[in-house]
TrEMBL record:
Protein name: Cytosolic beta-glucosidase
EC number: 3.2.1.21, 3.2.1.45, 3.2.1.46
Pfam families registered for this protein in UniProt: Glyco_hydro_1
Transmembrane segment boundaries: 560-581
The organism's place on the tree of life at top rank: Eukaryota
Catalyzed reactions per annotation: a beta-D-glucosyl-(1<->1')-N-acylsphing-4-enine + H2O = an N-acylsphing-4-enine + D-glucose; beta-D-glucosyl-(1<->1)-sphing-4-enine + H2O = sphing-4-enine + D-glucose; beta-D-glucosyl-(1<->1)-N-octadecanoylsphing-4-enine + H2O = N-octadecanoylsphing-4-enine + D-glucose; Hydrolysis of terminal, non-reducing beta-D-glucosyl residues with release of beta-D-glucose
A GO term, aspect molecular function: glucosylceramidase activity
Similarity comment: family membership: Belongs to the glycosyl hydrolase 1 family. Klotho subfamily.
Gene: lctlb
Keywords assigned by UniProt, alphabetized: Glycosidase, Hydrolase, Membrane, Signal, Transmembrane, Transmembrane helix
InterPro entries: GH, GH_1_N_CS, Glyco_hydro_1, Glyco_hydro_1_AS
PROSITE patterns registered for this protein in UniProt: GLYCOSYL_HYDROL_F1_1, GLYCOSYL_HYDROL_F1_2
Organism: Salarias fasciatus
PANTHER family linked to this entry: GLYCOSYL HYDROLASE (PTHR10353), LACTASE-LIKE PROTEIN (PTHR10353:SF336)
Length: 585
């Protein structure tokens, strides 16, 4: 009897070793930053752009929509830059046709948007009331996309929790969110699932947890340091798993769609790749970011390093249990493998080095990691303070995902760059560079064997950028927010991205250089147009302030009298000329 049991033991060890080596063969020490790669993407690669409900729709209290935590948060003074709100934003709610034609102009294969939970279920609780007008809006959007051969990729939760759920239960601090979210998701599958085949449960739950419940920079603005983020994340992961199972058991056979999650992850690169401590710190950075959500979903539990670090620090603080909640064995097996595709939102990279944080009384997600983040001052930082352009980090992250989670199917759900300038600038040469280099690193990752199926530029339009308000513009299209009609203007990057899409990659150096030159050339004329338009509207605004009747008088003079007089005089002189010529003959 000794022999078989030791054989079983050996087998176990072997399996364990195999699993470990399969999961950990990411090569930290090898960072190949080779030159630009000319080549194309696999046939059928899907090109898209994205946005989200609260950031673009506006119509915050229209047609029976309930309040979300972002409506309430942005209406409080001092929460958002300039006290901006998403009340009207891009007025996307009224501009479905216009916006779909912008997507057609780009020849997009897919468009990623999110459904506002309180627009469908005003209180968040399905048994209270379902708002048919809200359903109609998304029906209209989905149908219009499909008529134009654009595949909808739909996010169920892009941060706009119904306010009632926050007030009644404390939002994601409360386990009851799991069932409410599941009912909302089920409603979406029932009403839209015949047409929508790509579902994303959560967008960037890291931000919801850390910025919503730890730092309080985002709605609901809670500062529950050291515990709030972990608890919120725990409930979101459970909610994700539940919704995946709902789809899997009730809808998949009939609707044949896929359901995934969209995780954000900055890349963490060891400051010194020959220093084991730095490598461990960088790995911790990535595990606390992407791994926090991906590891439970793919492997059934939190990353070991999170359990170790948070557990040890909790003990040092004299707490009886870890601040990181634990999953039961049943929950682990229920969670494992609940992902048909992985959405990746990626923007930037940090250098990471080891740094001990003595665990005092105050604890936080940030100090739990024992590391310091650094940036290279030579990295370009065109827009947002946090967003440095480091294209090679993207390839590293994608390869990390491949090795850690068994080469899953990936859709890049967000990638892009902002500009901070408030002035008019359609010639966004730096954005062209960003897209060109990041998309190229994604191409290299595909050559490395990473299973990337699609790419989503973030974002189609300039829009409400959360606590930064309208001060950061991520759009391919510029939106003039000062004008009530919110007109859209193409930036140069529209022309450039369009070429990448139509060539399905980068044919050769000469051509790609040409695209860039042409894009920048053509944009300067639209730039002038927009500048003139803005001058006109701000001049009109000033006049309107001084004296309203005067403005309308001025407008009548410039818009009606002057053009009419000009046209008439041209006509008259033409007739006169003809008359003269005839007489000569
Ligand atoms: C990720 C968020 O999901 C998105 O809504 C936001 O616009 C981008 N980050 C840029 O900050």
């Amino acid at each position: 009897t000794m022999l078989p049991s030791s054989a079983v033991g050996v087998c176990h060890v072997l399996v364990l070793v195999l699993c470990l080596s399969a999961a950990e063969d990411f090569d930290w020490a090898k960072n190949d930053r080779g030159s630009f790669y000319y080549g194309t993407f696999p046939a059928g690669f899907s090109w898209g752009a994205g946005g989200s409900a609260y950031q673009t729709e506006g119509a915050w209290d229209t047609d029976g929509k309930g309040l979300s935590i972002w409506d309430v948060f942005s209406h409080k003074k001092g929460k958002v830059q300039q006290n901006d709100t998403g009340d009207s934003s891009c007025e996307g709610y009224y501009k479905v046709k216009d916006d779909v034609s912008l997507m057609k102009e780009l020849k997009l294969n897919h468009y990623r948007f999110s459904i506002s939970w309180p627009r469908l279920i005003p209180t968040g609780i399905k048994s209270d009331h379902v708002n048919e007008k809200g359903i109609q809006y998304y029906d209209h959007l989905i149908d219009h996309l499909l008529e134009n051969k654009i595949t909808p990729i739909v996010t169920l939760y892009h941060w706009d929790l119904p306010q009632v759920l926050q007030e009644k239960y404390g939002g994601w601090q409360n386990i009851s969110m799991v069932n409410h979210f599941n009912e909302f998701a089920n409603l979406c599958f029932e009403r839209f699932g015949n047409r929508v085949k790509y579902w994303i449960t959560f967008n960037n739950p890291w931000s919801v947890a850390v910025e919503g419940y730890e730092t309080g920079e985002h709605a609901p603005g809670l500062k529950l340091r050291g515990t709030g983020a972990y608890k919120a994340a725990h409930h979101m992961i459970k909610a994700h798993a539940k919704v995946w199972h709902t789809y899997d058991t009730q809808w998949r056979a009939k609707q044949k769609g896929l359901i995934g999650i969209s995780l954000s992850g900055d890349w963490g690169e060891p400051v010194d790749i020959s220093n084991q401590k730095d490598i461990e710190a960088a790995e911790r950075y990535v595990q606390f970011y992407l791994g926090w959500f991906a590891t439970p979903i793919f492997h059934g539990d939190y990353p070991q390093v999170m359990k170790d670090f948070i557990g040890r620090k909790s003990a040092q603080q004299g707490l009886g249990t870890s601040r990181l909640p634990a999953f039961s064995p049943q929950e682990k097996s229920y969670m494992k493998g609940t992902c048909d595709f992985l959405g990746i939102g990626h923007f930037t990279t940090r250098y990471i080095t080891q740094k001990n944080n003595p665990s005092g009384r105050s604890s936080s997600y940030f100090t739990d990691r024992d590391l310091a983040e650094l940036v290279d001052p030579r990295w370009p930082d065109p827009g947002s303070e946090w967003l440095y352009s480091v294209p090679w980090g993207f390839r590293r992250l994608l390869n990390f995902v491949k090795t850690q989670y068994g080469n899953p199917m990936i859709y890049v759900t967000e990638n892009g760059v902002s500009e901070k300038m408030l002035c008019t600038e359609l010639c966004d040469d730096w954005r062209i560079h960003y897209y060109k280099d990041y998309i190229n690193e994604m191409l290299k990752a595909i050559r490395d064997g990473v299973n990337v199926k699609g790419y989503t530029a973030w974002s189609l339009l300039d829009k409400f950028e959360w606590d930064e308000g309208y001060s950061e513009r991520f759009g391919l299209y510029y939106v003039d927010f000062r004008n009530k009609n919110k007109p859209r203007y193409p930036k140069a990057s529209v022309q450039f991205y369009k070429r990448i899409i139509s060539s399905n990659g980068f044919p050769n150096q000469r051509e790609v250089e040409n695209w860039r030159r042409k894009a920048v050339e053509t944009c300067s004329s639209s730039n002038q147009l927009l500048a003139a338009e803005e001058q006109r509207s701000s001049a009109a605004n000033i006049l309107r302030l001084i004296h309203d009747p005067l403005t309308s008088h001025m407008e009548m003079v410039t818009e009606i009298v002057v053009p009419t007089v000009c046209t008439l005089s041209i006509l008259l002189s033409a007739i006169f000329l003809m008359f003269l010529l005839r007489r000569r003959n």
